[in-house]
Amino acid sequence: MKADRTTDPRHARLRERLDAIRARSAKSTSWRTSTQYLSRLVNRDGFVPVKTRLTREDLAFLAGARDEVIALAELGVRILDLHRPQEAGGITSDPDSPIRRCRACMWRWPCPTFRAIDESLDR
Asked: What is the 3-state secondary structure (H, E, C) of 56-115?
C-alpha cells in the first residue's frame, strides 16, 4: 500500500491491520465442513480429539483469530453506534414516517456506512 502525504497514519495502520487479517484468513483452511463431523466426536469431558495437518498459515490464523474477531466485532459495534438514524427535522408530507439522516455523516438513512456493514454481515 502506498500512502500519499494527506493520508492519516492511523488510517493507514488500521487499513494494514485489516488487510493482514483478511489475507491471513484467506490463506487458512476453512473448518466449516469439518465442524459437523467434529461435533459428533465430543467426548465425556467436552473435548474433541483432533488429529489433523495444519499449515503455517493455519496456525498463524488460529493463534490470533479469537482476539481479532473480538476486535473486529468491537469495531463494528462502535461504527454502528456512530452511524445511527436521527430525525432530520423539517416539513414532511407523512408525519408518521419522518425523513431520517445518519447522526455521523448526515446522509439519508440508511447511510452508505450502515448499508456496507449490513451487506457484509448479511452474507
From this structure: HHHHHHHHHHHHHHHHHHHHHHHHHHHCCEEECCCCCCCCCCCCEEECCCCCECCCHHHH
Distances (CA, A) of 60 to 20, 24, 65, 75, 79: 11, 7, 8, 22, 27
The mean pLDDT value for 40-48 works out to 90
Residue 3, pLDDT score: 47
| Cell 456493514 belongs to residue | 117
- CA atoms of 17 and 20, how far apart (whole Å): 5
Query: Cβ neighbours of residue 102 under 8 Å, at least 6 residues apart?
Result: 83, 84, 85, 86, 108, 109, 110, 111, 113, 114
- With 90 as the cut, is the pLDDT of residue 63 above it? no
List all residues 6 or more positions away from 95 whose beta carbon is below 8 Å from its beta carbon.
Answer: none
Residue partners of 107: CB distance under 8 A and separation at least 6: 101
